Amino acid sequence: MKAILTTIGKDQVGIIAGVSHFLAEKKINISDVSQTIMNGYFTMMMMVEIQEEQTEFTTLTRQLDELGKQLGVEIKIRREEIYDAMHQL
Amino acid sequence: METEKIKETIHMISDENLDVRTITMGISLLDCIDSDSTVACEKIYQKITTKAKHLVEVGRQIEVEYGIPIINKRISVTPIAIIAAASSDKDYFKYAKTLDKAAKNLGVNFIGGFSALVQKGYQTGDLKLIRSLPRVLAETDLVCASVNIGSTRSGINMDAVAEMGKIIKQASERSFMTNTKMVVFCNAVEDNPFMAGAFHGVGERDTVINVGVSGPGVVKHALEEVKGEPIDVVAETIKKTAFKVTRMGQLVGTIAAERLGVPFGIVDLSLAPTPAVGDSVAQILEEIGLEQVGTHGTTAALALLNDAVKKGGIMACSQVGGLSGAFIPVSEDAGMIAGVNSGSLNIEKLEAMTAVCSVGLDMIAVPGKTPAETIAAMIADEAAIGMINNKTTAVRVLPIQGKDVGDTVEFGGLLGHAPVMAVNAASSAAMIQRGGLIPAPIHSFKN
Question: Which tens digit of pLDDT belongs to each residue from A47-70?
């Protein structure tokens, strides 16, 4: 399944490293990435591909929540369809 | 990856209170009818707990996977007055208890359908159900009730209007919360996912998933971007925003229906406020350019809002239904409460607003001493607006015992708090006591 992972927070050392390290550990592939600083906030969006049989979404969400707390940012993951649905017919 | 669109969606959910207000499973109980009420209740319990077994679980899954809050998981059933009519029970409390127990067992937020449709008269079960209402509302927790007393096609049943005035009054004497769970309708719809007025119409499929989306905050935010622009730009902006919000409802509904193995019914896009800051319909009207809701221009602004919401929603999903439009419950909307407290908004203005919005006089606290006939007359006025204008109108007024104008009553949670509002002191009793039927209007004869 494709999902969009968003990371928003105060810019600091190690955010990208922290997030991509976590994803690599979970064997989650990053297929696209975009990163900017908006109003002083670090904003990163990643499109990731999750093997459904490998990863339970609820657990993943909780782990990302914890990772976000460690890194001092907010990390959210949502299945891609919600973004498509809202903006495309 | 279209980052701008992703940002917009996230912003709507995180900062503007965009949510799926409810996933409501409609369940037909027609196959549970039995002349023995114990057997009927057992069938009802089994059917509801089987069909909706995974409703709460699926709702939670979708919340996690799509990161969209789903505030309520609910059930609506066939009006119980029809289901219970075959039994010889003197009241239908037992049926209500069964619904309550099933809802609690499943962990849903509410179960609607303790209802009667009496727009033209009473069948065997109707009056028994209506007279059970005060006890049912006081002694169950999750059961919601509704009574349809009028329609454009059949007129207004003034006997039922008078009866409902008395029932509301009696229910209020048991507890101030009872009437929050009951709605009196004219032109009730059969696929409404919103409470307290949801029931599963007899023309519906056996089981169906209906979804209610909300998002007044999203609309208000969008309008902040078009300050000072002509009013048609306002309408266009609301329409586009409504489209996006409804698309999300369509997605959530489709997924929920698929996972539950139940057909998908309708999306009801209703701007339903909550007491949370920035989740107010009144504030949308103020954003359009009113100093305070209730002032001159409020009805026009609301008419525009209600219509633009429908137009945006209709294109966005396969089937729009329910009430779709804007809700104006007083206690649940911080802007409405402020309007009442400042003296800008009163019942008379709210009544005018109900002629152009999707519902009616909703969540309005009135003094406990208000006579039953006055409450009945308020219902009659609302029903007349619905009947003549071919629209749904609803009344959820709450007489609060021991409180008077100027007092405030706290309902808690999504129901918020309400200032007790003044009603007209002149009596309507003689009119209400006449009873009978207000004939259907001339424009109902379309055949």
Answer: 999 887 667 888 999 999 999 999
